[in-house]
Every structure is written in structure tokens, then in C-alpha cells.
Design brief:
It comes from Ureibacillus thermosphaericus. Keywords: Membrane, Transmembrane, Transmembrane helix. This is Cytochrome-c oxidase. Helices cover 82% and strands 0% of the residues. The chain has 130 residues and is mainly α.
């Protein structure tokens, strides 16, 4: 179970790492740094945190396999939801209702917070190697 989620998390992280670097390059080229918070969150949350979780699952075995799936799904939904919500909040390119955009942003951040909390729990349920 951990191996399957490990590679999924790493692939997800790699895609967002590429998007974050592309966004940084675009900002630099245009000298418009208004999307810095989104760029930073893409690289820190979507790339670094999700990649680290993928490596964790590559190295460790977890006693309760359902926790791995729940954590990985929450991680990807939260990382995507937070950065997408942040993008929508800052740009609102589709002219959606401001309250709806704020709710999307909050839900993404909340899912990510839950993923971090669940990861703390997961670290206490690793199988010991004797």
C-alpha cells in the first residue's frame, strides 16, 4: 500500500514542482511578482511537503494501511485545493461569487491542515524493524 501511494505522491509533487517553477519563471520574465504567494505555496506545499510524504511512505511501513490512503488523498486534495483556491482568491479569472471563492480557498486549506495532522498520527504507527 505504501509503495503505491509513495509513487503517486511523488508524481503529484513533481507535476506541481514543474508548475511552480514555470510560474516563477513567468513572473521573473514579466517582472510581475503578484503571484508570489501562489508560487511559494506550490513549491513548499505541493512540491516539498507532498514529495517528503511520498519518500516517507517509500521508507516506512505503516501498521494501519487505511491511514496511508486517507492521508495521501487528503494531501493531494488539500495541496491542490489550497493553491487553486489561492489562485482563485487572488485572480478570480472566472468572476465567480467572492464568497464561493473564499469557501474553496478555506476548504483546500482545511483539507491540507487535516493532512498534516493525520501525518503526525501516521508517524506513530510505523512498523518496527527488529
Amino acid at each position: 500500500m505504501e509503495q503505491k501511494w509513495s509513487i503517486r505522491l511523488i508524481r503529484f509533487a513533481a507535476i506541481f514542482g514543474l508548475l511552480g517553477v514555470f510560474l516563477g519563471s513567468k513572473m521573473s520574465g514579466s517582472m510581475d511578482y503578484s503571484l508570489r504567494p501562489i508560487h511559494a505555496h506550490m513549491l513548499l506545499v505541493c512540491w516539498l511537503s507532498v514529495f517528503a510524504w511520498g519518500i516517507f511512505y517509500k521508507v516506512y511501513r505503516v501498521k494501519y494501511k487505511k491511514l496511508v490512503s486517507v492521508h495521501a488523498i487528503l494531501s493531494m486534495l488539500g495541496a491542490f485545493g489550497l493553491t487553486f483556491g489561492m489562485w482563485m482568491y487572488n485572480l478570480n479569472p472566472f468572476n465567480l461569487n467572492d464568497t464561493f471563492v473564499m469557501v474553496v480557498f478555506i476548504i483546500g486549506g482545511t483539507l491540507l491542515l487535516l493532512a498534516f495532522l493525520l501525518f503526525v498520527l501516521v508517524t506513530f504507527f510505523v512498523e518496527r524493524e527488529d
